[in-house]
Write a structure and sequence with these properties.
By secondary structure, this protein is mainly β. The protein is 1% helix and 39% strand. Strand 4 and strand 5 form a beta hairpin.
């Protein structure tokens, strides 16, 4: 929908409630610590060596992560962020990468956004040493925003509405080739409705068949759900801010096919976002406002690994933690991040403007 800055057509203690067995190593240091506490885990900034803005992030493990950002930049680390290697595709300096999905340290798929041929998909099988262009958009009306994978073979990429419906691409060979899906099973878009290419989480998947996409810019901020890998979709209104091109759902996270969190708001710094988060317990069919939402717009969200209750949300003004499934949130860091992602081994990463990238450090 937007390149975020360019317009175009169309008082609780953080440690309380953490799952001790699975997540003792995944709390975040509060912005203001209370009393003498044991050193807690915290975001540890790493030196990316660039000033690119990284809205695309894929956490493979505590050691390995991929970043995708402005000026056609793709970085990869395999040593926990001590060193970042520039593995950008050749000739991509004019592209805006906004989403990346990595399967391991060698295989990844990255999405560039924009109108017409600016929207492209690339894949690497050798850790970014070489890339192949897997898709180039030739429809001037289309603008792609996010991508996701169900497994190593099957994935989707989504774009803003064309002819009144969101456009979907599908792959069944790990992103080597893409096909535009038929739109018959897609509900009609609202006037002005689109997606936000803000943090690579406007399209997410959980399990082998279920996917959700987030929308904004229209009368209602919605979440659309597909249970058949994108062939048919149902739409549900959310209580997040809407009725303005800058407002809506910016990011989604589902820990299974039932339990989801939506975050967003109004991305303009001078505008409030009083209902910046909502939760669903029925696979996205209905959404309820967080009782204590994040205090401002948030563009990224992720469940902490192996937890049924704990998640992180990030945005330009900070990081928030929930320990009750998204009903209440506490700000635990005030650094600026655009997106956040966690790997199964509890390696959590965040990235954002001016080359910012951090790893969540465990308790010492």
């Amino acid at each position: 929908m937007t390149s975020m800055g360019k317009t175009r057509r169309t008082g609780r203690t953080v440690a309380v409630g953490l799952c001790a067995a699975a997540l003792a190593a995944l709390t975040v240091v509060p912005a203001q610590a209370h009393g003498a506490q044991r050193p807690a885990p915290h975001w540890q900034l790493t030196d990316s060596g660039t000033d690119a803005r990284f809205r695309g992030l894929s956490a493979v493990s505590r050691d390995t992560a991929w970043l995708a950002g402005s000026k056609g930049t793709v970085l990869r680390t395999t040593d926990g962020g001590t060193h970042w290697r520039n593995v950008s595709p050749s000739g991509a300096a004019d592209l805006e990468f906004r989403d990346i999905e990595a399967f391991d340290a060698r295989h990844a798929v990255v999405l560039a956004i924009g109108e017409g041929e600016a929207s492209r998909v690339f894949r690497t099988d050798d850790g970014g040493a070489t890339w192949s262009e897997a898709f180039r958009n030739t429809d001037d009306r289309a603008f792609y925003d996010c991508l996701t994978f169900f497994d190593r073979r099957h994935g989707l990429a989504m774009g803003d509405p064309v002819d009144g419906k969101f456009r979907l691409l599908s792959t069944s060979d790990g992103g080597r080739s893409w096909t535009v899906l038929p739109s018959a099973g897609m509900p009609a878009a609202q006037d002005g409705e689109a997606a936000f290419a803000a943090g690579g989480q406007c399209l997410v998947a959980s399990g082998p068949h279920d996917a959700w996409l987030a929308t904004g810019g229209a009368a209602h901020a919605r979440v659309l759900h597909s249970a058949d890998r994108g062939l048919t979709w149902t739409a549900a209104d959310t209580p997040l801010p809407a009725a303005d091109p800058a407002r809506g759902v910016f990011a989604l996270a589902f820990r299974d096919r039932t339990h989801g969190i939506a975050v967003g708001g109004d991305y303009r710094a001078d505008q409030p976002s009083p209902r910046a988060a909502a939760v669903s317990g029925d696979g996205g069919r209905s959404w309820t406002s967080a009782a204590e939402p994040p205090p401002a717009y948030r563009s990224g969200v992720t469940w902490l690994p192996h937890s049924r209750t704990d998640a992180l949300a990030v945005g330009p003004t900070g990081t928030d933690l929930t320990t009750d499934g998204g009903r209440t949130w506490t700000t635990v860091d005030t650094g600026s991040y655009d997106t956040v992602d966690c790997a199964p081994d509890r390696g959590c990463w965040a990235s954002g403007e001016k080359g910012r990238v951090a790893r969540l450090e465990p308790r010492r």
